[in-house]
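Instructor's aside before we start: the two examples that follow are unrelated to each other. I chose them only because their records fit on one page, so don't look for a connection. First example below.
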Amino acid sequence: MSAAQDRGATVAPVHGLTVLYDAECALCRHVRDWLARQPKLVPVRLVAAASAEARERFPGLDTADLLDEVTVVGDAGQVYRGARAWIVVLWALREHRALAHKLSTPAGMRLARGAVLAAAKYRGRQWGGKGTYRRADGWWYDPVRGWVHTSQTCSDGSCPTG
């Protein structure tokens, strides 16, 4: 499975979630603290993506990918990334489930993706222009040029088949 793909979202019901976040990111820590205070309909566990606990619990997930983009893992092994991850987290919160349902529509998904891209831009600013923020889908944020999309050429054989 490619780390960028969601897995199992329609196969098994979700009874618990683990949110993997970048503990070095101020925005990520702020959102973690906000999530911890929210009333939940589904239990949500918050785990630093680069921690020993994350590596132990999810050995099949690449730590570098987890630091690039928020990842949420369901209790039955479902994996959600990016905008879908935020939607499933909102779905788990008592006061935000209705918003999650709205964001799960095609129009709502565009808004959710925009929010994720805005968060990535903010994260890029935290680095003071010292680096770039890259997503698995080919989009990356360069503090000088802004958002850039690079199509995969597959010339090195790294693209998925079929």
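Example two begins here.
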Amino acid sequence: MAKPAFKDAPLRREIENLAKQQDHHTLACWAAECAARVLHIFEEKKTEDLRARDAIDAGRGWIRGEISMVDARKAAFAAHAAARESDNVAVSAASRAAGHAAATAHVKGHAVHAATYAVKAIFYDSLMEEQERRVLEERTWQYRYLLGGCSDHGERTR
């Protein structure tokens, strides 16, 4: 059975426009939070694999000045490798969200990809009749969170 085609919320464009107005650290914090919200999707299937969690932690560590951009980028590569190894599209998307969150330390444009992969993880992890509602809810959360900024250096959680 083929996977259903991902359908994003119209709010995506507003999020992308808002992201263009943000500083690097705000985007890194936001990306980490977006990825953290779907980390459970990865960890429920890959219970022993810490690469997605480590990538989110690396992004947060970079925000706080505890690790270098190079180290955050290495964590991003590891999370993307975990995504490639998964045959579950939701699990893969959750790991890619984490990878892009860490990669935001290198290039701030990765933040919007972290948000989009988080939404894809939710879409593919949801029942078909819930997909549209859950995507809209998550995009609404993403927009509001980004609109409020992220001044707490990556410590904010769900």
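The two ends are 34 Å apart (CA to CA).
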